[in-house]
Design brief:
46% of the residues lie in helices and 15% in strands. It has 289 residues and is of the alpha+beta class. Strands 4, 5, 6, 8 and 9 form a 5-stranded mixed beta sheet that branches. A 4-stranded antiparallel beta sheet has the order 2-1-3-7, with no helix packed on it. α4 packs antiparallel against α6. The radius of gyration is 24 Å and the shape is globular.
Length: 289
């Protein structure tokens, strides 16, 4: 058996964009009709189960083994140039919009960046569309049926060959990763939202404002910093909605006031403890004379 037998299970879009032309004419179709097209949507906007690296050079089917990485789930190649999409399927898809569980998204961005770098991937490839490995326009090289990976497995494999970027709060080590844009925009938006929440009492106004802030940062900071350009508006909307809801529920005015009182009390107690410690040190020093 090959991974072809498991392709449909791990290709998740329910009504994917698809086209027979690489550069245009994309429409949403049923999964069955989409698979009649040469190019298909890779992942749903809010969930990622496939990591695709666009290798423009020759011998795309050999790149992973040449650098010491595990066997890809499949490689969809141009039969003439032998360039192609190198694909790793994840055992557990990663939700890109869950404000409460960002560690998998952060790791996914680092893995994607590492694969792009070590496999000679096109840094301008956005990852939204991939070659349909079941279509006759491409030459598929299917991996073993067990070529399905945990995110940490891929991170460990990249780490073993020195290709996993170091973690960075500002996403500065993953500037060629499409998921890195999500990480950076999430951090920018949440940090602003923590401070801004107490100024809003209407949830609708709050969610509209968070979205406006996220879009502004997407079209400025993200567009300027990342090789793959800004995120699509729908992706930004989903991210902003997640941040807005999470912060709204957890940073209520009452909870913020209670936290400030607790922090103030802890700060005061800390000052008292340091003062008492200093007095005790002076007393011991005086007794030792």
């Amino acid at each position: 058996m090959t991974f072809q037998d498991h392709f449909a299970e791990h290709w998740l879009p329910q009504k994917p964009l698809s086209s027979n032309r690489k550069n245009g004419g994309y429409k949403r179709r049923t999964r069955t009709k989409a698979l009649d097209c040469a190019y298909i949507e890779t992942n749903p906007l809010a969930m990622q189960s496939l990591i695709v690296t666009d290798h423009d050079g020759a011998d795309a089917d050999w790149q992973a083994s040449l650098v010491g990485l595990p066997e890809p789930s499949w490689v969809a190649m141009n039969p003439h140039t032998r360039s192609g999409h190198i694909v790793y399927a994840l055992k557990d898809p990663v939700c890109l919009t869950d404000a409460g569980h960002r560690a998998p998204v952060n790791l996914l961005a680092r893995v994607e960046q590492g694969l792009t770098t070590v496999l000679g991937g096109d840094i301008g490839y956005g990852g939204r569309i991939t070659k349909n490995p079941t279509h006759s326009a491409h030459m598929p090289i299917w991996g073993d049926s067990q070529a399905l990976y945990g995110l940490r497995d891929l991170a460990r494999a990249l780490g073993d060959i020195g290709a996993l970027p170091e973690p960075h709060r500002g996403a500065q080590t993953v500037l060629d990763s499409s998921v890195g844009r999500n990480v950076a925009l999430f951090n920018l938006t949440r940090q602003w939202a923590y401070r801004a929440r107490e100024r809003y009492s209407d949830r609708v106004e709050w969610e509209e404002t968070v979205f406006a802030f996220a879009m502004m940062k997407n079209l400025s900071v993200i567009a300027d910093s990342f090789s793959r350009g800004p995120m699509e508006e729908k992706e930004v909307s989903q991210l902003a909605h997640s941040v807005a809801g999470w912060v709204w529920e957890r940073f209520t005015p009452e909870r913020t006031l209670a936290n400030r009182k607790r922090w103030s009390k802890a700060l005061t107690q800390g000052k008292v403890n340091r003062k008492n410690a200093l007095i005790e040190e002076l007393r011991k020093a005086d007794n030792g004379r």
